């Protein structure tokens, strides 16, 4: 029997605010445990919460980026459960009245670039507080309440995803959009972004969704993909054998590559939701929403399309450059400074990203190479003032120390030798010093020409125009 897969993701995103969701404690991942705490986030009797306006704004802006309808009225509720990471034994969240409704993320069918466009719907986005962090040691465990109260946005997707690959593209696109909006770093290693994964199978031809299984707190894309592959195969084998899937919560063991049952799935009534008595509802005016909408950045997909249209670069280049907003901004600024668009794209995607990777830096951290200095270097290449190898060496030097390419070229006399007579003289020296490769080229071995070009470059200390050198060698050897 063939089964159809339905996957829905509930993605939790920590918002990049200065203080916590319902108190004034600072948010910091570098502080000593339990130093950024107060009576509110510790849940002490009599402490009263107050909603963080920046967190509300970030949630609304996320909703606007995703095409959601923004609620003019939203309410907080208490979600009751006991666990050491929530000291007051309830979480302030939103249940029936979230800030954002609807919306979606555009992906490709099958999660591959050649697939047809597909819209994965978002049911809603609500705002809540994160729990504390439990740290396990050799002989004991401890709870760090610094994280407790971090503004946490939950994006609840509809079960529109049909494969692990589609889930990956959805998460990557969602992460890209949220980072562009500036609402979160979405750093999976730091726990800024994690997902609860819901998956069910139904017989082909059936419209009714199968029984849903949830896999909790997945914080790596690779782990989500592997967990989905295992769980889909597990449910399919169970159904083919005549068994039934039980609605439950499971955990993923990455070392064993398997999911394991944790508990039967809770429903909303198990949490005994009721309105939060200590917080007023959030009421938003049309004017406020439109003011926040005016602050939205250009969406990643729109930027990709514009890069292709305005700069004439291929879709692949536009995709790489627009994947990170700082990289896209660096490219645009380089072109604005006078660099040819395709050359800027090639050098940024190739040499600059290679240097950044080796130094373990992001483009946002780059202080030595500026868009202006890269544009100046590329203009020197375009004008044939310097050749490719010299330009690459210059970029590496500027990456390490900074500097003005024009000044360095003039100061060191690095300008390319383009005088035909001078290059011909160098070509004669190369032929005389290397009779065997010269004879091999005359005998039909084309590769020998490149060796001789290299000798000309060596004689010129890297300053000869390689094309003119090759032309001169061919003329002398023909």
What is the count of distinct domains? 3
Mean of residue pLDDT?
91
- Low-pLDDT runs: none
Structural class: alpha+beta
Portion in strands: 15-25%
User: End-to-end span in angstroms?
Assistant: 71 Å
The residue fraction in helices comes out at 25-40%
Oligomer: single chain
What summary fits the major beta sheet? 10 strands, mixed
Number of strands: 17
Question: Can you lay out the helices and strands and say which pair or pack?
Answer:
Layout: E1 3-14, H1 53-65, E2 69-70, E3 73-74, E4 77-80, E5 90-93, E6 100-101, E7 104-108, E8 117-129, E9 133-136, E10 141-144, E11 151-157, H2 164-181, E12 193-203, E13 213-218, H3 221-240, E14 248-253, E15 258-264, E16 274-275, E17 282-283, H4 286-293, H5 300-311, H6 315-322, H7 325-336, H8 341-359, H9 371-382, H10 388-401, H11 405-412, H12 420-433, H13 435-442, H14 447-459, H15 466-477
Parallel strand pairs: 13-14
Antiparallel strand pairs: 1-11, 1-12, 2-6, 3-17, 4-5, 4-16, 6-8, 7-8, 8-11, 9-10, 12-13, 14-15
Compact overview of the structure:
This protein has 478 residues and is an alpha+beta fold.
Key terms for this structure?
alpha+beta; Arc Repressor Mutant, subunit A; 40% helix
Description:
- The protein is α+β, with helices and mostly antiparallel strands and 478 residues long.
- The protein folds into three domains: 3-291, no CATH class; 300-412, no CATH class; 420-477, Arc Repressor Mutant, subunit A.
- Helices cover 40% and strands 19% of the residues.
- It has 15 helices and 17 strands.
- Strands 1, 2, 6, 7, 8, 11, 12, 13, 14 and 15 form a ten-stranded mixed sheet that branches. A three-stranded antiparallel sheet has the order 5-4-16, with no helix packed on it.
- Helix 3 links the parallel strand 13 and strand 14 (248-253).
- Helix 13 packs antiparallel against helix 14.
């Amino acid at each position: 029997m063939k089964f159809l897969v339905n996957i829905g993701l509930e993605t939790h995103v920590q918002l990049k605010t200065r203080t916590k969701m319902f108190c004034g404690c600072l948010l910091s991942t570098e502080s000593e445990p339990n130093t950024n705490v107060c009576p509110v986030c510790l849940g002490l009797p009599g402490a009263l919460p107050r909603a963080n306006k920046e967190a509300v704004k970030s949630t609304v802006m996320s909703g606007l980026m995703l095409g959601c309808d923004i609620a003019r009225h939203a309410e907080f509720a208490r979600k009751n459960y006991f666990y050491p990471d929530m000291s007051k034994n309830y979480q302030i969240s939103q249940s029936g009245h979230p800030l954002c409704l609807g919306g979606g993320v555009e992906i490709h069918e099958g999660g591959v670039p050649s697939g047809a466009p597909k819209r994965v719907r978002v049911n809603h986005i609500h705002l809540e507080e994160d729990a504390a962090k439990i740290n396990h040691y050799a002989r004991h465990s401890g709870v760090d309440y610094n994280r407790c109260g971090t503004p946490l946005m939950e994006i609840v997707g509809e079960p529109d995803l049909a494969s692990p690959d589609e889930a990956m593209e959805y998460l990557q696109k969602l992460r890209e959009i949220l980072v562009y909006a500036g609402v979160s770093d979405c750093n999976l290693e730091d726990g800024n972004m994690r997902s609860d994964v819901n998956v069910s199978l139904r017989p082909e031809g059936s419209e009714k969704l199968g029984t849903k299984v949830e896999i909790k707190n997945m914080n790596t894309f690779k782990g989500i993909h592997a967990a989905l592959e295992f769980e889909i195969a597990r449910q399919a084998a169970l159904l083919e054998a005549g068994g039934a899937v039980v609605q439950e919560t499971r955990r993923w063991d990455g070392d064993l590559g398997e999911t394991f049952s944790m508990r039967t799935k809770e429903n909303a009534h198990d949490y005994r939701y009721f309105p939060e008595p200590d917080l007023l509802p959030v009421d938003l005016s049309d004017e406020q929403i439109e003011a926040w909408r005016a602050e939205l950045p250009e969406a990643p997909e729109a930027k990709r399309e514009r890069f292709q249209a305005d700069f004439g670069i291929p879709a692949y280049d536009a995709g790489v450059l627009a994947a990170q907003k700082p990289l896209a901004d660096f490219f645009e600024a380089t072109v604005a400074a006078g660099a040819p668009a395709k050359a800027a794209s090639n050098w940024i995607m190739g040499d600059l990203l290679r240097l950044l990777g080796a130094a373990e830096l992001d483009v946002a951290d780059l202080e030595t190479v500026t868009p202006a200095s890269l544009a100046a270097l590329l203009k020197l290449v375009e004008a044939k003032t310097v050749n490719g190898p010299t330009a690459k060496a210059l970029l590496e030097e500027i990456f390490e120390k900074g500097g003005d390419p024009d000044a360095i070229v003039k100061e060191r006399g690095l300008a390319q030798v383009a005088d035909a007579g001078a290059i011909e003289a160098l070509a004669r020296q190369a032929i005389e010093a290397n009779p065997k490769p010269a004879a091999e080229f005359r005998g039909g071995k084309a590769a020998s020409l490149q060796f001789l070009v290299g000798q000309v470059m060596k004689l010129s200390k890297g300053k000869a125009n390689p094309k003119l050198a090759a032309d001169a060698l061919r003329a002398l050897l023909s």
